[in-house]
Amino acid sequence: MRDHTIIVGFGTKGRSALQTLMATGLRKDQVIVVDPSSKVIESAAAEGIEGVVGDATRSGVLLRAEVQRARQIVIATQRDDTAVLVTLTARQLNRQTKIVAAVREEENGPLLRQSGADTVITSASAAGRLLGLSVLSPSAGAVMEDLIHQGSGLDLVERPVIKAEVGRDVRDTGDLVVSVLRGHRLIGYDDPAASPLQLTDRLITIVRAGSAEGDG
């Protein structure tokens, strides 16, 4: 397999990540799940998803999942220390792949980034912020919950700038643009630096579910 997605840890977080990816066009035959539980892997296989049983902190296990050819890796382990070790191992085996990892505690986020993760999601604090927002404004909380669930209501998507938009103000694209990704810099829509748009920019937009084309 080549250019596939590896999901390490197939509990609630791993399954939710897969559901979101599939909602944007990822096929089951483009996914390999790695989990230490044979029952979990058997369950994945019953759903038509290839799996590898084993400890993903070990290079041999990740090599069985063909990590060296993977396009992206989602690390959704139960323990933060395991997530760090898996990230270190995966990055050593594939310097180019995109690694997205989840941790429970925010203090472990920097360590994961140092270990090679491109993006780190802190599950405990993210859930806490959503709870707090829902208390302060149930409507705002409902909108955020809608955005989190890909494929229903509103979706948050990333797309390239088209030629007709080059040189224009970010607010004149016809889409509800949240941020502009320019190189490795994420620029807010209200930042004067966001405009004019450049051909190599990518836009983070909010769209009606089902109206967005995949970003490829």
> Overall 3D geometry?
globular
Q: What is the CATH topology classification name of the largest domain?
A: Rossmann fold
Strand order of the largest sheet: 3-2-1-4-5-6
Number of strands: 10
- Helix-residue proportion: 25-40%
Total tally of structural domains: 2
- What's the number of helices? 7
Instruction: Give the C-level CATH assignment of the largest domain.
Output: Alpha Beta
Tell me about this structure.
Residues 2-122 form the RCK N-terminal domain. This is Ion channel protein. It holds the Pfam family TrkA_N. This protein has two domains: 5-123, Rossmann fold (3-Layer(aba) Sandwich); 153-216, Alpha-Beta Plaits (2-Layer Sandwich). The protein is 34% helix and 24% strand. It has seven helices and ten strands. The protein has helices at 12-23, 38-46, 59-64, 80-93, 109-115, 123-136, 138-148, and strands at residues 5-8, 31-35, 50-53, 72-75, 98-103, 119-122, 154-160, 176-182, 185-188, 202-208. Strand 1, helix 1 and strand 2 form a beta-alpha-beta unit. 27% of the residues are buried. The model has no long low-confidence stretch (mean pLDDT 88).
